[in-house]
């Protein structure tokens, strides 16, 4: 993948005090970046089924991409079984994965709408894949939104399955499980 110059960005691990700022980036990304891919009802339902799983921060596996002091993107990886969702998503599973047989999880990637197409997503992917490899994983999986699929595909991820997340109001949000060897 041809990458943009991202040398002016920095990163650091997210801390619990960052949650309000991270949530604001996520909410803006869901509200603004999914409109070309989903109906208004599906965008609204996405706020329920997506978002921050604070276990990622507690585990030290969630990163903020910064331009100066501003958070312009965020994302992480996990060695736990949960593939996507926030703290209240049904089916969460905190079981630790085995790097020999399981794929690491790429989780909760968001770019602030005012900063898209600047290499932030690729920067997060490179960082998370490298960290997963350092921990012995040889592949990664993620659950892509329709808006995120082009980025992940350009990073070498391939479709495993297509699924729907069901919001409490009955609206289905289409998702794509993807995988890549690292």
CATH T-level fold name: Aminopeptidase
Radius of gyration: 15 Å
Q: With helices defined by DSSP (H or I, 4 residues minimum), what is the helix count?
A: 5
In terms of per-residue confidence, which ranges show pLDDT below 50 for 5 or more consecutive residues? none
| Biggest sheet character | 7 strands, mixed
- Element order, helices and strands? EHHHEEEHEHEE
The rough form would be described as globular
- Secondary-structure-based class equals alpha+beta
CATH superfamily: Gcn5-related N-acetyltransferase (GNAT)
Mean pLDDT: 96
Strand content: 25-35%
Number of DSSP-assigned strands: 7
CATH class reads Alpha Beta
- What is the number of domains? 1
N- and C-termini, Cα separation: 14 Å
CATH architecture assignment name: 3-Layer(aba) Sandwich
Strand order of the largest sheet: 1-2-3-4-5-7-6
The share of residues in helices is 25-40%
Helix-strand layout with pairing:
Layout: E1 10-13, H1 19-33, H2 40-49, H3 55-58, E2 62-67, E3 70-78, E4 104-111, H4 120-134, E5 139-145, H5 149-154, E6 158-166, E7 172-181
Parallel strand pairs: 4-5
Antiparallel strand pairs: 1-2, 2-3, 3-4, 5-7, 6-7
């Amino acid at each position: 993948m041809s990458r943009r110059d991202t040398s002016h960005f920095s990163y650091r691990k997210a801390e619990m005090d960052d949650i309000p700022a991270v949530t604001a980036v996520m909410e803006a990304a869901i509200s603004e970046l999914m409109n070309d891919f989903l109906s208004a009802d599906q965008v609204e339902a996405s706020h329920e089924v997506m978002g921050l799983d604070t276990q990622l921060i507690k585990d030290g596996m969630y990163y903020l991409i910064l331009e100066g002091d501003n958070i312009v993107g965020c994302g992480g990886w996990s060695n736990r079984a949960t593939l996507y969702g926030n703290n209240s998503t049904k089916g969460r599973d905190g079981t630790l994965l085995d790097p020999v047989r399981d794929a690491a999880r790429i989780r909760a990637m968001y770019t602030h709408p005012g900063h898209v197409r600047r290499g932030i997503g690729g920067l997060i992917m490179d960082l998370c894949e490298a960290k997963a490899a350092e921990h012995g994983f040889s592949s990664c999986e993620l659950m892509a939104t329709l808006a995120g699929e082009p980025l992940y595909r350009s990073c070498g991820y391939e479709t495993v399955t297509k699924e729907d997340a069901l919001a409490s109001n009955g609206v289905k949000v289409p998702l794509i499980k993807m995988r890549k060897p690292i």
